[in-house]
Known about the structure:
The structure is a homodimer of 237-residue chains. By secondary structure, chain A is mainly alpha-helical. The first copy, chain A, has one domain (26-227): Four Helix Bundle (Hemerythrin (Met), subunit A), CATH 1.20.120. Chain A has helices at 3-33, 42-45, 47-64, 77-108, 117-141, 147-187, 197-221. Chains A and B meet through helix 5, helix 6 and helix 7 of A and helix 5, helix 6 and helix 7 of B.
Amino acid sequence: MSPSVFFWVTYVPCLCLGLLCLLFVSFWSSHWHGGFSWDGSALQFNWHPVLMVAGLVVLYGNAVLVFRMPFTWKQKKNTWKLVHAGLMLLALLLSVLGLCAVFDYHRSLQIPDMYSLHSWVGICTVIMFAFQWVLGLAGFLLPCSPLPFRSNLKPVHIWMGKAILILSLTSCISGITENLFFSLDGVSGEPYSSLPAEAKFANSLGILIVAFVLVVFGILSKNSWQRPESENESIPS
Amino acid sequence: MSPSVFFWVTYVPCLCLGLLCLLFVSFWSSHWHGGFSWDGSALQFNWHPVLMVAGLVVLYGNAVLVFRMPFTWKQKKNTWKLVHAGLMLLALLLSVLGLCAVFDYHRSLQIPDMYSLHSWVGICTVIMFAFQWVLGLAGFLLPCSPLPFRSNLKPVHIWMGKAILILSLTSCISGITENLFFSLDGVSGEPYSSLPAEAKFANSLGILIVAFVLVVFGILSKNSWQRPESENESIPS
């Protein structure tokens, strides 16, 4: 099997897993929690899991894979750097909107903010992501960025990119856990420990997110899917 | 700064973070939850977080770094493969003991098992770890293992090694979240949302575990800390 075909045989299931994550998180919010609104009610909170999974996991995970797609290797790297930065900006905006949804809902119902471990890890993830985006723009897209800065930044950018995806996964799994304890043990009559349909469904969403992130890490770890550096790209970018 | 000195400047803080994780998780169980016992009571449960953090995070994290230590590069690789496998076996045994602690406690108090997302992710982590250990033994330590099997296994072993560490982190953070909801909102008079001393302490433990795992990933991502392959080690190992 050629490397290009092998890539697609791995990437298409990865894409399907990402779409399944989106489908599951949207269905969870709409079927068990009443759907969506932006009015400070619990329906506004429902945007939080959907926007975080969409931005921090699915879009982010696809954006990190842009340079691994073999059909891009013969095209200008600068074009794909812009695509990478554009997708990452969209992912960051969705995440910030997801944070606004939960903070607004908390303010409206006077629920305390930022006390849980989920919120501590989650806020670190988004701050690190914003920092990484600005640093990436300054280092790899601005033509005036000095060469030593670029070459020192590249390994840090790669490590931080993986760290953000790990933190996103951790935030999602702890967030689903927290949400299920609130909605099942706190509100509905069916305790989490009796594993009602909602619990089974949301646990499966968690497993889908885990699978998606691990497949992304699998694709990243394969050396033969790294974009080959051509001669005119010998400067670190 | 020489690569060797730079390695130690990074590894020593990593080691300190790991020891702090152990100290924090032990203090949490002993100060707020009454200490340890092996009698089916809540004091037996207290072994669960301590053994999982010790085995799946701190010992595992250090065992994956064995080949990155510059002083080992001039010594026989086989010796360090045995050290790696030995540390991993100890980490696996601690994790299995940690699982026994919680299953035994559940059975003794007739609490349902395996319903939460934390338990689903956690059990996947330990099963994957056991599978990885047996596969690693068969592929890299048994002299009769065929060469093509070794060379195909190596990238899978590296990817699965990272995947297990990511899953361990995810299990720990969701486990701390679950534990705090039980012990604060369920038992004591101080809700989690008022951020009492125990919540601040256990959240900090979570952040320490995150920091430890991200530093381990940082060390793994540095190419110049990879053990150089000598000529007589050209066969994949």
